[in-house]
Amino acid sequence: xxxxxxxxxxIDLFAIAVLACCIYYPRHRRTDLALAYIALNVGVFAxxxxxxxxxxxxxxxxxxxxxxxxxxxxxxxxxxxxxGYYFTALALGLxxxxxxxxxxxxxxxxxxxxxxMYTADHPRLSNRSRHRIVVLDTVxxxxxxLLADLEHRLDARIRKFDVTGTDxxxxxMTVDVRYQPRPAAAVPMPADRTVxxxxxx
Length: 201
Prior knowledge:
The protein has 201 residues and is of the alpha+beta class.
C-alpha cells in the first residue's frame, strides 16, 4: 500500500463512521443499513484503490460501480432517504480511494458530503413534511369529507393527497398523503409544592 492510500484510509473510515454511526443510526435506528453502508464504503475503497494501483481505466471502474449500485437498489426495498445515504457511502469510498493522491481535495469533498447529509436529513427539516400511504375502510364521495377524515386519522395538517385506488366491493380507498404533523400540546407541569418540615424548636 502506498503512502497516499495509507493516509486516505483513516480519512475514509472516519468519514463513513460519522455518516453511518453518528448521523444515520441515531436518527433512523437501523443497524442493518448502517452496517451495509460501512461495508459498502470499505469495499468500494479497497476495489478503487486496487484499480488505481493496476492502472485500470476510470471508465471501467465507474461502470462496475454503476452495475453494483443498480443491483443493490433493486434487490431490496429501501426508502429514498436510505438511497441518499447509500450513494453517499459509495461516493466516499470512490473519492478517498481514487483521490488518494490529492488528500486535501479528498478531505474537502468528504466533509462536504457528510455535512450535506447531516443538514439535508436534519429532523428540523424532515419533520416539516411526511409521506404515507393510507388505506381507509370507507369510500368518500367528495374531497371535503376525505380531507377531514385524513386530518382526523393522522392528527395532522394535510398538504396534498391523491387517491390511488378505490375498491367499491370492499369499501376501501388507498390514498397517497403528504402531511405535516401538528406540534404536540405542551403538558402543564404540576405546581411546585413545598412540604413543611416542621417548626424549629
